Please model this.
Amino acid sequence: MADAHASPNYWMIWLYLFVLTVIEIAVIYMPLAKVIIVILLVGLACSKAALVAMYFMHLRFERLTLGIIALTPFILCVFLILMLFPDLA
Amino acid sequence: MSEVAAVMHASAEPAESPLTPESWGKLGMWVFLAGDAMSFGGLLVGYGLLRHASTNWPLPSHVLGISLTAFMTFLLICSSVTMVKGLEAVRNNQRSVAKTYLLLTALGGLGFLGLQAYEWTHLIHEGLKLWENPWGSSLFGTTFFMITGFHGMHVTGGVIYLLIMLSIVSRPSVALGHGWCYNVVEVAGLYWHFVDLIWIMVFTFIYLI
Model:
C-alpha cells in the first residue's frame, strides 16, 4: 500500500508555500532586469507547484509512471511555447 | 458489445489498477487532471503569445490588486492544508475532525470565490471588460477574464465536490479508516490540490509577471 509511508509534515509544506509566495511578491518590486524577474518568478512558481504535487497530491509516494503522466502536460506546454514563439520574431 | 464479448472483456480486465493499487478512480482522476492541465496550459501559453506580440500591454501589477490576490493565494494554500488534514482524519477514524477540516476547505474555496467576485466587480466598474481595457490592449481584458474565469469555474466545481464529500463523511453508516470513503475523499483531494496548483501558475503569470 502506498499509505505505508509516514505522513509528511503538512504545516512545513504550508510554511514553504507561504514563504515562496512572499518572495514572489517581493521580487516584482526589486530593481532587477525584466528577464531576471521573469526567470525568478517562473522558477518560484514551478517550485511551489512541485511542492503541491509532490506532498499534497502525494506524487512523491506514488509509482514513477504516475509521475510521468502528471508531467506530460508540462512537457507539452514547453513544446507548444517552443513551436509558437518563433512565429512572433 | 455482445454478452459473450462483455464477459470475456471482464475476465481480461485486471482487478487492480497497475498504477494506483488503491483504486481505479484515482488513476482516472490523474488522467483527467493531466488533460485539464493541458487546457490551462493552452490558455496560459496563448496568453503569453498575445502579450509578447502586443505593444500596449499594461503591467498587471499596476492595474490589478496584488494584495487582494496574494490573500486569495494564501486562502487556497490554507485550504489545501485543511484538505490533507481532513483526509488524514478520515484515515484515523476521526469523523468530527474530518468533517471540520472538509468544511473549512469548502469555506476556503467559497471565500476565494467571494473575493474573486469582488475583484471582478471592482475591475468591471473601472472599465475592464471582456472586449476592452482602459489601460491598453483589449486582449488584456479578454485573457484576464477567460483565464481567471476558467479557474473560478474549477473552484466552484471543487466546492460542490467538497460539499458532497462532506455529506458522505457525515453519514454515520459510512465506515472511515482505510476503505471506500478514504479513496473517494483522496480523489476529491487530488482535484482540490490541482485547483490550488493551477492558481499558483495563474497568480504568477496573470498578476505578477
Summary: Residues 23-208 of chain B form a domain with the Four Helix Bundle (Hemerythrin (Met), subunit A) fold (CATH 1.20.120.80). Chain B touches chain A through 48 residues (CB under 8 Å). Chain B is about 80% helix and 0% strand. The longest helix of chain B spans residues 138-170.
